[in-house]
Design a protein that fits this description.
transmembrane helix, mainly alpha, elongated, two-stranded antiparallel ribbon, transport, 4% strand
Length: 227
């Protein structure tokens, strides 16, 4: 599907929802919720895979120690362990890849003329950065900062559920790098796009919390939750 066709489709859906709710900001939130519902089976599988990977870390550390002088064999044995355990280390990328075209389409929709220039939600115009207030010539944009907070919490949860010195060190690096990247990417972006990403991140965070703190894969209560 060409990007313009996808943009036209997203705009059509937004306008259809706008016709019912009368506000493009609310329409964006509804589109975001619908998107999260569509990809829920994939994100559920992703979160369960994360839990399995966490449980496999002690075995991976043993393999690493045993084959520390043979990186190729270490990679092979690790891949075999993942395969036998039904874990796909790259499975977490799929929900992001599915959402990316919608994200790009929203960006082009709010950067072009498809959405009215005066479309507003709360205090901000959706085709401009949200600008809560000005400090001299500096605009304080709240939505990107909220995005930083959501991204930090997501990375913190992932860090706390990852064992293994090397993996944990990588996650600690991402704990600070990802929020800074989000701030840089979104600070001057149209607030309609930032709103979509913020709501999607918040919904993902809630889902991530309940999956990791809820039941284990065999249906029994998580030990931590039961105490």
């Amino acid at each position: 599907m060409k990007i313009q066709a996808l943009v036209d489709f997203v705009v059509y859906v937004l306008n259809a929802i706008y016709g019912v709710v009368g506000n493009y900001g609310i329409a964006i939130i509804i589109v975001t919720i619908l998107m999260r519902i569509v990809i829920f089976p994939l994100t559920l599988k992703q979160e369960k895979s994360m839990k399995k990977m966490r449980d496999l870390q002690p075995e991976i550390e043993k393999i690493k120690e045993k084959y520390k002088d043979s990186p190729q064999e270490y990679q092979q044995k690790t891949a075999e362990l993942y395969r036998e355990s039904g874990v796909n280390p790259l499975g977490g990328c799929l929900p992001l890849l599915i959402q990316m075209p919608v994200f790009v389409a929203l960006y082009w929709a709010f950067s072009g003329n498809a959405i009215p220039a005066d479309a507003k939600f709360l205090w901000f115009t959706l085709k401009q950065p949200d600008r809560l207030f000005m400090i001299g010539n500096f605009a304080f944009n709240l939505l990107p900062i909220l995005n930083v907070g959501v991204t930090y919490i997501q990375q913190k949860i992932m860090t706390n559920t990852t064992s293994g010195q090397e993996s944990n060190q990588q996650m600690k690096t991402m704990l600070y790098m990802m929020p800074l990247m989000m701030l840089f990417i979104f600070y001057r972006m149209p607030s309609g796009v930032t709103l979509y990403y913020l709501v999607s991140g918040a919904l993902s965070l809630v889902q991530q919390y309940f999956i990791l703190k809820g039941r284990s894969d065999d249906g029994k209560d998580n030990i931590k939750s039961s105490k």
